[in-house]
């Protein structure tokens, strides 16, 4: 897979020397990474390493204090989250932030809220229901009464409704049964095959590396290792620290 995109020669998403803080807490300490169009790139790392913070810094929920985030050649570091959804960055955040008092259908419609062409949601709803048939059976059910796994599907489906060119997924397999974990990873592959670039955060490093093209290992706010998914799977440090081998 080429690491470049278009005439500019730059990857679709470029995180360049980013430092992000929560008040005094220095959570990202100079993170640099790229995601080329068409790739699945995974971020792995222990609890607190900065994975969620990295996704939030890309989607505009947080802004870097130093460094830059570029998307399709433009500096987006200072843009608010809603502008970034309009530009094609979809984010399914950690912890399935769906609207519990809205129905499944209403949650999906909310996902398209920032789009200008909200009239014809049919093809996008069809896509989501094809990826997640479970949601089609439950269009009228309140989001808050879905099972954990179903809420996870709804969160991913809602992010897809904004027609993202890059989809940021934060722990999509968290709390799912083994069969559902398998299904969610298959679905992420399908989403990618349909043309959406994916930046995937996972605790489940083995599964993530089995569908990703490349990966980055984060440790206390820094990238400590990067390479093809295959090379990371073979890497001794990764195997010990993140794949549960001893
Ligand atoms: N709202 C916040 N206020 C203060 N510190 C925060 C906040 N959110 C995260 N942090 C800190 O920033 C660091 C990075 O957190 P982050 O959530 O990005 O980690 P993570 O890699 O996603 O971890 P996990 O695997 O547990 O989800 C941690 O030290 C965390 O305590
Ligand atoms: Mg996290």
Which structural traits does this protein have?
246 residues, alpha/beta, Rossmann fold, four-stranded antiparallel sheet, 10 helices, 10 strands, 35% helix, 25% strand, binds adenosine-5'-triphosphate, binds magnesium ion
Structure in words:
The chain has a six-stranded mixed sheet, with helices on both faces. Strands 2-1-4-5 form a four-stranded antiparallel sheet, covered by helices on one side. The model is unreliable at 1-5 (pLDDT under 50). It is an alpha/beta fold. The protein has a domain at 39-57 and 94-242: Rossmann fold (3-Layer(aba) Sandwich), CATH 3.40.50. It contains ten helices and ten strands. The structure holds adenosine-5'-triphosphate and magnesium ion.
Q: Bin the helical content.
A: 25-40%
What value does the Rg take, in angstroms?
Answer: 17 Å
Low-confidence stretches: 1-5
Bound molecules: adenosine-5'-triphosphate, magnesium ion
N- and C-termini, Cα separation = 32 Å
Count of extended strands: 10
Largest sheet: 6 strands, mixed
Tell me what the CATH architecture of the domain at 39-57 and 94-242 is: 3-Layer(aba) Sandwich
Note the beta-strand portion. Answer: 15-25%
- CATH superfamily of the domain at 39-57 and 94-242, please? P-loop containing nucleotide triphosphate hydrolases
**Sequence of secondary-structure elements:** EEEHEEHEHHHHEHEHEEHH
């Amino acid at each position: 897979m080429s690491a470049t995109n278009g005439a500019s020669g730059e990857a679709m998403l470029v995180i360049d020397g980013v430092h992000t803080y929560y008040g005094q807490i220095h959570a990202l300490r100079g993170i640099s990474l790229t995601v080329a169009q068409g790739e699945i790139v995974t971020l792995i790392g222990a609890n607190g390493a900065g994975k969620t913070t990295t996704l939030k810094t890309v989607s505009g929920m947080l802004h870097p204090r130093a460094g830059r985030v570029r998307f399709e050649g433009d500096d987006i570091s200072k843009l608010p989250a809603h502008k970034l959804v309009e530009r094609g960055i979809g984010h399914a955040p950690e912890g399935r932030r769906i609207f519990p008092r809205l129905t499944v259908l209403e949650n999906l419609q909310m996902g398209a809220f920032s789009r200008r062409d909200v009239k014809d949601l049919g093809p996008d709803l069809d896509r989501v229901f094809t990826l997640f048939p479970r949601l089609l059976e439950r269009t009228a059910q309140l989001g808050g009464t879905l099972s954990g796994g179903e809420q996870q599907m709804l969160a991913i489906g809602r992010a897809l409704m904004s027609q993202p060119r890059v989809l940021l997924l934060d722990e999509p397999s968290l709390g799912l049964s083994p069969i559902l974990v398998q299904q969610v990873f298959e679905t992420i592959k399908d989403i990618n095959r349909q043309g959406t670039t994916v930046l995937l955060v996972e605790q489940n490093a083995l599964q993530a590396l089995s569908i990703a093209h490349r990966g980055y290992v984060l440790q206390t706010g820094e990238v400590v290792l990067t390479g093809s998914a295959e090379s990371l799977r073979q890497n001794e440090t990764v195997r010990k620290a993140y794949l549960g081998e001893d």
